[in-house]
Amino acid sequence: MVRWLEAFSRRRGRGLCLAAMLAAALLAGCRTAGYYGQAIRGQWQILAGRQPIPKVLDDPAAGESLKQRLQLVTRIRQFAERELKLPANGHYQSYVDVGRRHVVWNVYAAPEFSLEAKTWWYPVVGRLKYRGYFSEAGARECAARLARQGYDTYVGGVDAYSTLGWFRDPVLNTFIHYPEEELAGVIFHELAHQKLFCAGDTDFNEAFATVVEETGVRRWLQSAGPPELARRHEESLRFEDAFQRLLAQTRQQLQELYAARPGRGGENGADADESTLAARRRRKAEIFSALQNDYARLRAHWPTATHRDRWMTSHLNNAKLASQDAYYRLVPGFRRLWEGQGNDPEAFHRAAGSLAHLPKAERHRRLQSLEDNSR
Asked: Are 110 and 318 in contact (CB under 8 A)?
C-alpha cells in the first residue's frame, strides 16, 4: 500500500486527488459530504493562492523579513534533498498567506474512560486519529457534537501539513517566521511524510517523521547554524523527552483506572452505578491535577521551556493525551532504528519502508522491541 501510494501520487496529481475527495463526498451522507466539501474548498484556496518564491523575492511590496525567511527555506529544502535524501519534488517553492493563524484545526476525541482515540476513515490514507478542518468554527462544531455524545475532545491548531505528493506544498505564513531550527523541523517533518506514509497508521507515520525531523535539524545546525542554536535544539529535545515521560506516566495511571472493573455499592443498582461513575471521575481529575503539579516541577528545571505551557494550562483530558501519543509513542523505537542503520538516511528510509509493509501490529511490535532492547 505504501509503495503504491507513493508511486500513484507522483504519477497522477491534483485532478485525481480532488476527484477522490469529491467521490467520497458524493458517496457519503450529508454531514460527511459537507466535511469533504470544506476540505476541497480549503485545499483549492491554498493551491490558487500560491506565488512562486522568486516572484515574492522580486516584489517590492514584500517585506525584507519575509524575503530572508523564504531564502532560508530554499536552503533548508536543498539540504533536505541532498543530506537527508528526502523527496523535495517541487515542494516549498511557492508561498501562500492564508490570512489566519493556523492553516487547519484538528479534532481529537476519546471516550470518557478510555485512551483509545476515535478514528475516521479517509480515501487513500485510511483511518486517522483526527479530523481536520480549514476553519476553527467547523472544528469546534465537530468537537461539540462529539462532546454531546460523551467523548473527551480536543481541538488543536495546525500550522503545516503534507498532501503526500498529490500537490506541490507551499510555504505558509503560519510557519514561515518560526525560529530557524523549528522552521527546518517543519520542512523535514512534512517532507518525511512524502518519503514514507503507511495508510491507516497515524502512530507509525508521525513517529517516523518526528525522528527524521530531530535528526535532520541536528545535522542542519551542525552544518549551518551557530553553536547557540544547536545547544538550544538539544535542550529542547531533552525537555520534550522529559515531558513525554510525564505524559506516559499519566497514561499508565489512567489505563489502570479505566481497566479496573467497577465495583457495586449502595442499596440499588442505579445508585451504585452513579456512585462508581462519580468516583471514577474524581480519580481521573486527581490524576490530571497531579500531571499539572509534576509539570510545574519540571518547568522549574527548564525555566525557558515555555512552549508546552499553553497546552498544559488548558483543559486536560483523554483526547489531549491521545493527540500526543500519536506523535511520540513509537519515537524511541525509530531512534534505535536510525542508530542501527549507522545514522545513514538512505539505510534508515529503507529499513522504515520494510517495516511499513508488515502488518500493523507486527511493525509496532518490532519498534517496541528495538526500544526495549536498548534499555
From this structure: yes
Give the DSSP H/E element, type plus range, for residue 297: helix 269-301
The H-assigned helical ranges of 149-226 are 180-195, 202-224
Confirm whether 35 is domain-assigned: yes
For 227, the grid coordinates are 553553536
Three-state SS at 100: coil
Q: Which domain holds residue 206?
A: 2-103+159-225
Angle between helices 360-373 and 202-224 (to 10 degrees): 50
Cα(325)–Cα(318) distance, integer angstroms: 10
pTM greater than the 0.90 cutoff? no
Domain count, the chain: 1
Position 267 in a domain: no
Asked if residue 87 belongs to a domain, the reply is yes
55 within domain boundaries = yes
Cα–Cα distance, 300 to 144 (Å, whole number): 35
| pLDDT tens, the chain, 375 aa long | 333 233 223 333 334 344 444 444 444 445 677 888 999 999 999 999 999 999 999 999 999 999 999 999 999 999 999 999 999 989 999 999 999 999 999 999 999 999 999 999 888 788 889 999 999 999 999 999 999 999 999 999 999 999 988 899 999 999 999 999 999 999 999 999 999 999 889 899 999 999 999 999 999 999 977 888 888 889 999 999 999 999 999 999 999 999 987 655 443 344 458 888 999 999 999 999 999 999 999 999 999 889 899 999 889 999 999 999 878 889 999 999 999 999 999 999 999 999 999 999 999 999 999 988 766
